[in-house]
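Honest question from a wet-lab person: if I give you the sequences of every part of a complex, can you actually get the arrangement of the whole thing, not just the pieces? Trying it with mine:
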Amino acid sequence: MISTRKFGGYLLLFLATWQTSLAQQSLLIGSATDRTPVATYGVPQNVSRIAGTIRDAESNEPLYGVSIQAKGTTQGTVTDVQGNYELQVPDGATTLIFSSTGYQMQEIEIGGRTTIDVLLGVDDLALEEIVVVGYGTQRKSQSTGAISSVSAEEIGRLPVTNAQQALQGRAAGVDVVSLGSRPGSDVSVRIRGRRSFSAGNEPLYVLDGIPLSGGLGDINQQDIQSMEILKDASATAIYGSRGANGVVLITTKRGKTGRTVVSYDSYYGISEPLNTVDLFNGAEFAEYKRESRRATGNYNDADPAAADARLFDPVELDGIKTGRSTDYQDLLLRDGNQQSHQLGVSGGNEKTQFGISANYFDEQGIVYNQDFTRYTLRINIDHQISDRIRVGTSTLGVYSIRNGEGFNPYGGALEENPLGKPFDDNGKLIFLPTTDGLRTNPAAEVVPGANIDETKRTRIFSSIYGEIKLFDGLSYRLNFGPDFQNGRYGRFIGSQTNNRRGGDPTAFTRNSTLFNYTLENIVNYNKTFSSLHNVNVTLLHSIQQDRYEEFRTDVRGVPAETQEFYNLGAATIIQGVGSTLVEWALQSFMGRVNYGFNNKYLLTLTGRVDGSSRLAEGNKYGFFPSAAVGWNISQEEFVKNISVIDNLKLRASYGATGNSAVQPYQTQALLARTVYAFGSNGAYGYRPNVIGNSSLQWETSTSLNIGLDFGFFKNRLSGSVEWYQTNTSDLLLRRQLPITSGYNSVLENIGETSNTGFEATLSTVNFDSDNGFRWSTDFNFFTNTEEIVSLYGGQANDVGNNWFIGQPITVYYDFEKIGIWQSNEVDEATKYQRKVGEIKVRDQNGDGKIDAADRIILGSDIPDWSGGMTNTFEFKGVDLSIFIFARQGNTIRSRFHDSNNNLFGRYNNLDVDYWTPNNPTNAYPRPNQNQEFPVNSSTLSYFDGSFIKVRNVALGYTFPNSLTNKLKIQSLRLYLSAQNPLLFSNYVSEHKGIDPERALAPDGNNQERSSEVNADTPSTRLFLFGLNVSF
Amino acid sequence: MKSIKIGLFAILLLMSQACENILEEDVVSGVPIGYINTPAGFEDGVKAVYSSLRNFYATERGMSLTVFGTDTYTMGSDGSFKFVNQYTSQLDPRTSLLTEVWNEFYRAINTANAVITRADAVTGLDPTRKAIRVAETKFLRAHYYFVLVQMFGQVHLTLTENTGIVTEAKRTAIPEIYAAIIKDLEEALPALEAKPIDWGRASKGAAEHLLAKVYLTKATSEAAKPEDYTKAAEYAKNAISKYGYRLLSDYARVFDQGGGEINDEVIFSVQYTNDPLTNGGGNNAHVFFLMEYDVQPGLQRDVQNGRPFKRFRPTNYTLGLWDRTVDSRYEKSFKTVFLANNEKTIPKDAAGKPKYVLGDTAIWLPGYELTAAEIAAKRYQVITPSKYTPKLYPSLTKFLDPLRPDRTTFEGSRDFLAFRLSETHLIAAEALFYAGKADEAVTFINTVRRRAAYPGKETAMEITPDKINLDFILDERARELLGEQHRWFDLKRTKTLVDRVKKHNPDATANIKDFHMLRPIPQDQIDRTAGGGSSFPQNAGY
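Yes, you can. This is the full assembly:
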């Protein structure tokens, strides 16, 4: 693991060192405020050659690559691997300057010596307080924005597929919810709530300075040095029209000056389902099926043998007789596993640094046919061409193969009759285990070759820069970020599957290519005047263009199943072909001024102008300004004396950001294609589809943020609290039109939402004893209240879309179940056109009938609060960390509580307490063979989704240097880790749920949807063993 | 300093990339609206107006709204829209089926309006051809309004294209709507082709048939005029006599599949095809009327017998409609025998020997009762009327689609015969009956009935003028046109909906009220109209 302070060093090296002549400029490492007093040695005299060794003051390790400069001259050198240096000092030089990133700079008078050995102390202050901000870095004490950082250590500790998952529970205000458990699944990330109905609420991801097209699924998390989450307007306004949903800056690991380090990081783990769905077993199924016939008077209890013989087919009767209870979930499930192997080489000299790593990641899901394999290669190089010019690149190559993205046999397995016989006596699969023609054997879905669902992705992403120092404090940087993505999705469905049920096999392919580039010109000016006024000005011009092409082919009647989707032309029928081109471009100008007075009073002003191709002429450009102030209270004299206070800073920001996610071409009036035929001749038509709205503009979010950073007791207690309010107006909303106008809706800038929240982050060192025992806690807590303020109808609700003024963007709006109609309530039930044994819902308006007016808002998937806590214990090389994550007060919709709970007497069902005349429960209705699903069955699916998860427990041991030195290795750590070992939730403990943590991705119109837990691959628990070694 | 100057120059140069044209948006994959003004775009616009027919005919929504909740059909065991049959409070303004029809038809109307409005601006198209296309479009627009006015009563009438944002809408008086429908059809009639080159396009005969039906329906509406029945009869007779249509000799052949479902009896059919690229959602009518044969002994689901959704179950009224000794239409409409196709589930006798083999009868629905002894004597399953359940009942065969490529395929390929000649006869009969010409009416009914007779029973099928009355006409329509998406409209037109449903449909008896003669206006329409319920009021009762 790499410490934060070293990380800060890399960053500085990368971003700042070239700007200044290393020996002279102090501003880059934050003007080492805390210098060690330097001894004076006698009378100066002319010396021509000085040599010495430089070591780390703490570890006494020799330091490579330390720069030594004779003050006031251009003469300088660097230390070798043994920390030795030798320097010819010209006449007149009296002082040497020793500097190395991450260490305090020292000036030492030569004093006539020829040997000067130096111990360099680590520069805690400067390094630990560096944060990455948009288009640069900043000392944290100078920052006025609300920024959360997640370190490599935290990211690396969780063996996740997708780096976004590592943000879960780590940063206040960042709500991360899983979108599924199939390997390679994405997660939903929402920063400070959701603002937009249909323009997207995904944050902007910026990788090594280049805004990314798409999520982070291609990024190997072990390559990430840090992720910074920019939350308030002060931090995000520099991203203007794309900042409204927050910005996540991802910085990858870079090489550093010094010894070449070879590292190998690896883990292997085994996963299992958290649980499986509790369904009726064979005997329970038989009884429930009988009850479904009793309900309609079709089961004669006087003669059960005859009634059974009439009701059940021979397979079922055999099943009842032999006590068969087939567990179809079990036929789909296997032990999953996950592994990652990373080999890295990094190092460099004073001029050139490099970091190269290769990673292999593989996850075999717990359901057959679902897996994800990814190969990544990262090459980061920085090179100093001259004192003034520096160039570098970070390049990422990815190749991934995902199976089973669109493959879900789970729903079928839950429906399958447990009395059925999946295999004959010779072990051969029986395609129809019962006489039900619809219900094919779920095990047939996972027969090799029956279902192929394969996504292959290739991506090459580069961030290339050149920097030139023009004159004192002024620099120019050119960033170029090409991003090439190629995707291929292939789907083959064989004949013996539920989808085809013996019909001809189908095959489908989709090929897509995406090319995106960003070109940025950045001018930076940084100067301190009179030691009091620190001014930093950043100017930017940027263009980004994106071109996406797609080709699809869909066929039926593949002659030989072995052809899969590799010979579509041989198929008998083409079901569909298509291609698409989508292009967009963005042009931006940005200016930012940071001003600091005496390190106490800070001001940041930002303005960005964005122009987008997606908007119509005259509305293409939008302006997004922000202002922020900060007050370093701890720098004030009256506070400096209070010894317990190390840091106290008050921040406030106000500004506007935008959301640009109008789909391209939305401002134009377009036709839609229709299909018809005259006889057997195709008759494609075109009809009006979209009303062009040339007045569309950006959604604008105006936010106010007030924050307080603090550090007490030598920073053993540190953290921050934030309060914010964001008002979003000009929402891109599909204004619903009366269809008599010919159009269903038009996209307009109407409506407002607001988000208000509170965030607290706290880090404490609870124990730090001399015997080496250390216990620290990182804690975060946040709330967000999301509210629709107005819609296109002003204060009128849009019931059709479930949008209600004063409520979050997504709510559950339905009838309220209050029980089951009981035998003594016949008259009352009849009045409501219901029967005994059916679901009883509340007549909210008491008008004596149940109709749409009786629906109410049952809840929202927005939690009341969320939080995360990590406790870390360290003792003599042993480290233990426990990470707990909680979301509380949200409602969820559990779809298998209605779709797999229809009590229809045909499909297997959730093992529920259903009503019968002898069991007058209020829990679930009576089975009924003539009812595909009970009336108001959706009311069975709403639950409290609160949970507390122990996300990770990791126990590691770092071998002592005394041992590793003998083995000629630099460091060695072994660890054991458990993911999701424990889950506490009422939904799980009381209602047979598996995992309440699930979000639904926005729909095809990019509209937000309420979360739903579906019959799908269950969440997993993972136990793994890992190793980190470096040479 | 020189290098600095060069650097600054370079920066300025790069900044000058800030050119406007990268922000220009070119539509490449999409098609802008101006395309309709081109000859090809104009033709495509007309085709688009046709495509909305598929939304209604032979779909779950069209079927559920016309077959369910009538005297002929009640619900089977499955399906989401039982409330449409039952007329419970769930049949409310949020009923998706209604909203879907409303939305699709108004989109079609706006497309038709665009085509008609822009026709003059289209250059480079043969004027005759243009006139034919405009006439087709008017025929379709009239058709859409006709369905809407029957279902919803006063609807919004607009005959010009909307290009901007319109939130005003109003409920137009029924006479005004009928006037617009008739104007469109009467203008279309002279320009339309008698035999269109493309099968499936609107023809003169189709326009005459639709005019006949429109006048017949208008005659019982608020827009009624004394001459409506005469006009209806006149147009119907024109359709029957002028264009060479002919009743097939065998009722069963009308519903033969294959060859594009082209026969002399078809006046207008909604087109489906076996090319999945242009079949859209396909003809789905094949699934709804079938009983659950596929879990019965000796049987499994196959393409020939179809996918049994068991949605629509014939009422006892329906099953008693035919005199099966002379009228062949019961036998030709319902499946009475299922042949064994699943060896594994063939029942075994006491000796363990299968009772019958593949291809033998597995189920017989005689349509009448047998004694227990008679039933016991059969090797196969016998389902007599007393054993009918919501899952087991006579299945209507006229929509079966054995040419589907496999038993799973939902998108059937057969055309849906929306207007056929025997209905024209029945329209003529109904109009003439109300016009006081029962003698003439009878000739049209008898033509239909003679065709339906078993060979040699033609005379027995004939009726005399004194037998003709509204009930007889409605019964005859049920016998001839069962399941063909007419029934709800027939009962509404003849104002017999409530009586007949109460009498014959046990699942709806308790709930149906007079206000159910109109469907509820979709709530979305009311909510989205400027002024809401006060400018676009809901139909009474909902």
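Two things worth pointing out. The CA atoms of residues 467 and 801 of chain A lie 51 Å apart. DSSP finds 14 helices and 51 strands in chain A.
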